[in-house]
């Protein structure tokens, strides 16, 4: 077995126990808190990350940034790794033989007896194990020997592995009362770091979160105050980047006025979604001096503009769950929740939908254009059209009442065809079954 020990950052008042170690759960499910360290058993997952060397490099990159974040140790048991970590932080070199030459005071269970053991000539783990066990148990107690056996790897410990809550919700106390909204960001960053560890471990991205603050006062100038005040933040796509979330919160907090001094801060996730693995762009990276430095991902630009200009000022097209071609797409605020795919007029199975979509044109006419007829055949640009594919029948919108021709509102009953003539080329037309007329609805490239 291979155990890694990483120092924990200083504890935050009110922070949920174990939240400081959530960042490690993306690398192994076997992570636990051991005194002042986070210990990880990685023998079963190292190969998934490309071997121990690659795993160590990724752990160093993902570890929280604090004073001792670059100290870490590796050994065959968690207690040996913790002992090596303590030697590192004390500025002492590792012993040549493990675990025999580890000092007595590097094992917490032996520290109360370190001076007495030194009088007996026992200053290392190996020297202690060489003494008679019965006499040691009578003098120092059985727990000392049990701790030494576990540290040596001769007995198995019952670990309480870190587990993630189903939903992220953390609350911390501020080190001092905050009287302005931007002052909340310093403590808010600690909550964002915990959120990032939770998202990484669950392989999720946040779509909506809520930052709430607790008022220290109940009344101001005789006016009763709510205990909590909050703001909600939406992102255009699932996101794990806390630096970008901090920028968005800063934009919103700049416009926020606190009703009273704040003593506590809470952050919770309202909506998350699975995060798709990153893929490389088909386009070459930007070249030239300053080109890459000024680049900004599209979704971050949308979120920043929405925060500055208002959610209704930035809109994007979204797919609509409707068979009527003119209703398959609509505009909505870029940060609005995505509509459910289980509407009344569902598109049916994915395979059937894809098969029909191969004949749909890339451009639609709004509204559809009525076509003249020669007998019972539709004409365009003075020539009769030949019907080459179809019919594809659409009956939809009955729940909206009577139809108004061309706007897609209400019941429509149409038969769509792919048609062609030498003057107009390839077009998409339909016959309205209620009136019997023909209409041009789409054109092909």
UniProtKB/TrEMBL annotation:
GO terms for biological process: DNA repair. It comes from the Bacteria. Signal peptide: none annotated. InterPro entries: DNA/RNA_pol_sf, SulA_CellDiv_inhibitor. SUPFAM superfamilies: DNA/RNA polymerases. Keywords: DNA damage. Coiled coil: none annotated. The keyword DNA damage applies. This is DNA polymerase. It comes from Pulveribacter suum.
